[in-house]
Fold:
Amino acid sequence: MAENEGRRYTLPGGATVSFKSSQMVTRLEWEDTPIISLMSYYLKEIYYTLQGEGAQSGRAAVFCRFSGCNLWNGREDDRASAVCTFCDTNFVGVDGVGGGVFPNSEAFADAVSAVWPSKMVNCKPLVICSGGEPLLQLDGAAVAALHRAGFEVAVETNGTRPVPQGVDWVCVSPKAGAPLVINRGDELKLVYPQEGVDPAMYADLAFTHFFLQPMDGRHRDEATRRAVQYCLEHPQWRLSLQVQKLLGIP
Ligand code: SF4
Structure:
């Protein structure tokens, strides 16, 4: 740990600077605002595919799966006691295709750029930051670096962490028992049904699109039937299918 860790210095005039360091972040802050951030980013995988879900379904994108989540630790032994119990994603570690530890925002953006096909024209490159929970790591420096690399930046989040400035597309997928701190965005995508969750709880939030996505698993057919019925009765909501699973693409 750095010897200045946690120290706060008061400058002439009363302003303060502080230095924070951990395994993932070294940061100098001015009045609690980051001014220098040297952060490592932990990615399970980075790959090129088609977005399979929600309003941007069918669109080519670089998909970044950040390691780690705040609602489950990823261990099967702990699933039953986790806040989120139906996860279908392996977000543990950095050993997937294109995964790794990227020492700063530029290295992360370079890795994303390397995956986007170089000869694309007449389109805006899209990167989708997912996880795990991407907002445990994605910060303003990473968003800015992705913008400098020419990308439109989308996030898919459980909605329990604030969104850094500059993100172009915010998709929130609420989880039962996890209070939302994001109550506006482009897309609210609710996995349905979830015990203790009624879509009406979210219907007045400031999102442009509202999707119900049938819960995958043993009861998927029943979940799909119920999601279809709900959308028929509440046209504010549209059905989102996980097209990537239907097509067998990553
Ligand atoms: S919040 Fe998302 S990434 Fe985290 S455990 Fe639930 S489904 Fe998985």
About this structure: The chain has a mean pLDDT of 91.
